[in-house]
Amino acid sequence: MSTSLVVPAYNEEDVIEDTLDHLSELEPHFDEIYLMDDASTDSTQHKIEQYLQENDTEIKAAYMRENGNKVGAIEEAVKHTDSDNVVLTDADTRLEAPDAVEDAEEYMDENDYGALAFKVVPDDSPEDLVDSIWNRLQDFDYAMGRALADYTTGERLRLDPDDKNVRCIAGAGGMYDTEVLQEALRHHSGKHAGDDMETTAITQLLLDNDVDYFRDVEFETEVPKEYSEIKDQRVRWNRGAI
User: Fold this and answer.
1) Which one of 25, 55, 138, 211 has the largest count of C-beta atoms within 10 Å of its C-beta?
2) Rounded to a whole number, what is the distance in angstroms from the first to the last CA of the chain?
3) Rounded-to-integer distance, Cα 16 and Cα 44, Å
4) Is this structure's pTM higher than 0.90?
5) 3-state SS class at 176
6) Which ranges of the chain have pLDDT less than 50?
7) Angle 178-186/71-79 helices, nearest 10 degrees?
8) pLDDT of 19-68, one tens digit each?
9) 3-class SS at 177?
10) Where are the alpha helices (DSSP H) in 55-204?
């Protein structure tokens, strides 16, 4: 089996160099790594180009001419991969224990799942008390999502023991069968608000593929630290749910 890592990025000039350092460390664990700049309006593209010129890396970078609302950037990258599976994450997210990705590949293949939801947790290094509060609120959101995943996929609570139904594969961390993902994206509305929840729903309801939760692969993601950012995030999530 082979797996590609796809990372869309939009206006990430503050973190993109750290992102590239992290992706370089992940190269031994993936057959391909695609970094897709989604028509950033800041210096993200320049910093990517400069990094690739100055460092010995096999990361593949491409640049959207028009903003694809994240979904478009993902779809463009997936068109060019020949891997069996695709792992999706964000530019401000870090993969912990990447060796576990191989276990996820085997688990998904053995059970013929269309996709897997990975564990996503907030960055555990807040700079002050306010940051810590935001982290705890975000962690609560993720915990509730994991609890719902356990409820709908746990053997004791599942109505149908053979049914797998994870509500949402977070954009910050999940794995898809490449052909399933390509087909799901063809049916996608293309709206950023529903990039993760809509893709999950299409995979299950339209394409009739089971989606399970694989907690051994964990992603650590940066959370919003301002009220306005938190509010905008919740608005996007609610629109995506609708």
Assistant:
1) 211
2) 35
3) 7
4) no
5) strand
6) 150-159
7) 130
8) 999 999 999 999 999 999 999 999 999 999 999 999 999 999 999 999 98
9) strand
10) 71-79, 100-111, 129-153, 178-186, 195-201
